[in-house]
Design brief:
binds NADP nicotinamide-adenine-dinucleotide phosphate; 2 domains; Quinone Oxidoreductase, Chain A, domain 1; about 25% strand; six-stranded parallel β-sheet; Rossmann fold; alpha/beta
């Protein structure tokens, strides 16, 4: 296949990084800051691959990039340029964002032997250098660990993407391009956060409290809990989402809107009576038990309740702070009850590979609810920013329509109900 000289890409622009100044987070509109534009194909370096992107997906990091919060991502690109000669390619006045893809390898650089042009792949988003000993036990600990398409340029919301070859994994053969593209970031993150010994190390019988159980991360946490013999306690914000959890096989579901929890009495003060009411609700649903693991990501708004609701000796495992990163909790409930808080972030290649392997075997399924064409990426990101979506939102790049790319119809047929549940 010939290499194009330029390609269509979704970018944020450095000269617009101040465009939302003075607005509240909810008022910042990705439809105004995400632009479809033609950009040159970057030079290919050793250990890298250029991929023709059939489909990509919206992750919350693309929402953060599009609203320039907590900081514009251009700072990451200039740091990359300062740290490494090959990083200089990434420092541009535009940032091609996106941290997921499914597609076909177009070219590989010198030193790449595991992949070749024509391979159908997905890419996880961990970019590492591994020149320092620190990263060799767990590659997430590499001092130069970056999230591709967020802390690097040339991401997946485009017709072409530049990745390191050790980001590549086989595309699950029973999935469409857009289904396959919707998985790697959230699936790998949840695998590490919940299952891996680097995270909570979930075991059979654990009660797992899952915030946002039908969202990007939560829809996978729920599946891992069910598949691993644990008991998910799913928190959602509408009867429709509660119903979706039940259709997945979940028995313990909390509709936080219907219950009307107000963990914060005002902007500065939490209400422990509300934590207790929440804890009682969990016990009602579990024959009097508490959560062994709390799967945290909403952050400031829920963290006090999460620390309270974990059982004695339990674990709160957190990978994010969507509602604010300055958390407050009552430390007496942590130390007196011997709980622990674990910080976790994406996944190493091994963990991402394990998570992808479970998808390939039909044990974990995509949760894609809707796909948009590349031109409408702004709307797709808006949906996720405003919490209007279910599961994952896909974006079609070179794939001309949905439904293409399935290579194993028999495996697909076996899991069609689970895959279609989210549509
Ligand atoms: P998502 O698809 O928007 O799902 C998050 C869900 O959380 C929402 O659907 C919502 O569900 C719930 N939620 C949101 N705000 C809440 C609040 N204030 N209180 C309680 N529940 C709330 O997003 P996602 O893809 O799951 O990502 C979630 C966060 O994790 C983002 O901040 C993202 O940047 C971060 N993340 C981090 C990593 C990492 O490697 N560190 C990886 C992936 C994502 P209901 O309305 O139904 O309750």
């Amino acid at each position: 296949m010939p290499m194009p000289e330029s390609y269509r890409a979704i970018v944020v622009r450095e000269d617009e990084a101040g465009m939302f100044e003075g607005l509240r987070t909810a008022e910042k509109d990705p439809r105004k800051s995400l632009h479809l534009t033609e950009v040159p194909v970057p030079e290919l370096y050793p250990g890298e691959a250029v991929v023709a992107v059939m489909a990509s997906a919206i992750n919350y990091n693309s929402v953060w990039s599009s609203i320039f919060e907590p900081l514009p991502t251009f700072g990451f690109l200039s740091r990359y340029a300062q740290q490494r000669p090959e990083g200089r390619r990434h420092e541009l006045p535009y940032h091609v964002i996106g941290s997921d893809l499914a597609g076909v390898v177009l070219r590989v650089g010198p030193g790449v032997n595991a992949w070749k042009p024509g391979d159908e792949v997905v890419a996880h988003c961990l970019s590492v250098e591994l020149e320092n000993a620190d990263g060799h036990g767990d590659t997430m600990l590499d001092p130069q660990q970056r999230v591709w398409g967020f802390e690097t340029n040339f991401g997946g919301l485009a017709d072409v993407a530049l990745v390191k070859a050790n980001q590549l994994m086989p595309k699950p053969k029973h999935l469409t391009w857009e289904e396959a593209a919707s998985l790697a970031l959230v699936n790998s993150t949840v695998y590490r956060q919940l299952v891996s010994r680097n995270g909570a190390g979930m075991k059979q019988g654990d009660n797992v409290l899952i915030w946002g159980a039908t969202g990007g991360l939560g829809s996978f946490a729920t599946q891992y809990a069910l598949a691993g013999g644990a008991t998910p306690i799913c928190v959602v914000s509408s009867p429709e989402k509660a119903d979706l959890c039940r259709r997945m096989g979940v028995e313990a579901v909390i509709d936080r809107t219907a219950e009307g929890y107000r963990f914060w009495a005002d902007a500065d003060r939490q209400d422990p009576a509300e934590w207790k009411r929440f804890g009682q609700k969990i016990r009602q649903l579990t024959d009097g038990e508490d959560a062994d693991i709390v799967f945290e990501h909403p952050g400031r708004e829920t963290f006090g309740a999460s620390v309270y609701a974990a059982r004695k000796g339990g674990t709160i495992v957190t990978c994010a702070s969507t509602s604010g990163y300055r958390h407050e909790y009552d430390n007496r409930y942590l130390w007196m009850s011997l709980k622990r808080i674990i910080g976790t972030h994406f996944a190493n290649y091994r963990e991402a590979w394990e998570a992808n392997r479970l998808v390939c075997k039909g044990k974990i399924h995509p949760t894609l609810s809707r796909s948009y064409p590349l031109e409408e990426t702004g709307q797709a990101a808006y949906d996720v920013h405003r919490n209007l979506h279910l599961g994952k939102v896909g974006v079609l790049a070179l794939a001309p329509r949905e439904g293409l790319g399935v290579r194993n119809e028999e495996l697909r047929d076996r899991h069609l109900d689970a895959i279609n549940r989210w549509r």
